[in-house]
Amino acid sequence: MVFSMIWKILNLIFIISYCFSETEGAATCDPKCSFTKDLTPQTIGSFPKNCPTVCGNLTFTNLTKLTDKELKNAFKNLKTLKGGRLSVIGTSFNNLNFLAGLQKIETVHVSLLVPENNQLLELGLKNLTTVIGEYFSVYNNKKMTQFNMPKFKTILSPMTRTYIKNNHPSNFCITSQILKVFLAEKLPNDELQMNGKVCAPKNYTKKNCKIPDEPCEELHGDLNIGANFAVKKVKNLKFLYGSLIVKNTDLANFKFLGNLTYIVQLGEKKIAIDVQGNKKLISAAFPKLKGILCNTWDSVNNQLLDAINFKNNHKSLLEDSKSCFALRSAQYIPQHEIPKFDGKTCGPYSVNISNNAGLEELELTNLTSIYGIFQVTSNPKLRKLKLPKLKTAQLSNTWVNDTAVAIAGNSPQFCLALREAKIFLNYKKVTSFMFDSKVCKPGRQAKKACIVPEIGCVNFIGNLKIGPKFDFKKVKSLKFLYGSLIVKNSSLTDFKIFENLLEIVQLNSTKLAIDVQGNKNLQSATFPKIQIDVSKLGEIKNHGNYQSI
């Protein structure tokens, strides 16, 4: 049995998940159920039409000159495409109804590729529920007006690239049901590009409305807020399919939009958020806003437009970097769509301290929050950061989709205080890391932190070595390991002793994160609660254990 665990590091770090590869699934597929050829009259006969799960690619081109009857007969039993992609390129199909039974596409790279089909009116994948894969692209189908995928509910990938553009120039629309699937699966470096419009519902309701009113949760059209607007009408609003326009009000903040979660504006030359002339507005924070999707490309002038614009409001907004970065990180193509506050932007760098030959400590003793990019590199005498009041770091490099935190190339004695490590390694708020460091030994005042295994220890700093005589009670409370986990020649059969372990953090690029050898009884390598292994290389050594590992 393959050593199967999920080690997840967002974005530029690695993801290993059940040994995925370009042809993932081939090992679990019947060889008789594999197919990798382009679909033509010459190859259709070898398609495994009796297999509900087929491993490989399905590629349709202008050479796929098959009748609708032939196609439906070939794919009548197909439910899952595994390890490859569905490509429909330059065909004369009106729809893909011959794949109506397809329920799931599972791959690691391109999952769906549908460009340049001049007669395609819709996809028509009526039973497709799930797509697992990095790229989902449907573009340049000049007659396509809809997807027609009524059961679609899940798209999963460690990094998703979705490109749905330039289909029917005036009539293409995407339903809110499908749109919500793409909106929900957002990681910091995901990219979602769309143009067209959101389909209007067949019948407007109190919750799904065209005119703002108190029960409304989904508003189709622009939300214009002026001086006399009754803000209670939008207190339940969650989805805005249009622009948010706030001009010349006495508002001080956006707390009245306490449930607004997504703003989607797919029209060309349209802005997502336009806030101007609100002289009392002192905060640009939205309580629950998660996603902003805007089509900012001006195809006529071949340029990007602003998606978010704040102008002539209270001057304090120019100092509201926290809100600026929150808006920036909520966008689905953030490196293109920088919020503008009176023409100024936030970032990308918040802290950049590099190549200072004599620097020994930062000593930014009053710094409490950081937003943007934190880079401290190549300071040969720097041993500590010394940021005693730092409480939060919302860090992402949305400018170039690169490292958000870089701490490397400093003194060989450099170390992060435990509190600093927890802030900078918060993978829910920091998109990507580059470390060449270690965590400092805790002082006497540090609570529940230890350098020698002991009962009650929650944070262990150093390498944790488990041997044949180890007292397992000493790791029962352990949640965070800042060093390597070394398990050798023990009598363990599984890792249930680490019942509370959440994270293994190895910041030294020359060290293994996990080294498990010579444990003849070890039959399972699953940790009950582990969430993330933050190691620069992600090296895991598994040797000489029970033969099924």
From TrEMBL:
InterPro entries: Rcpt_L-dom, Rcpt_L-dom_sf, SPS2_domain
Entry keyword annotation includes Signal: yes
Source organism superkingdom: Eukaryota
Residues making up the signal peptide according to the UniProt record: 1-25
Keyword list, A-Z: Signal
Domain Receptor L-domain: 50-132, 216-314, 456-546
Gene3D superfamilies noted in UniProt: Receptor L-domain
Keyword Ion transport part of the UniProt annotation: no
Record-given protein name: Receptor L-domain domain-containing protein
Gene from which this protein is expressed: Cnig_chr_IV.g12134
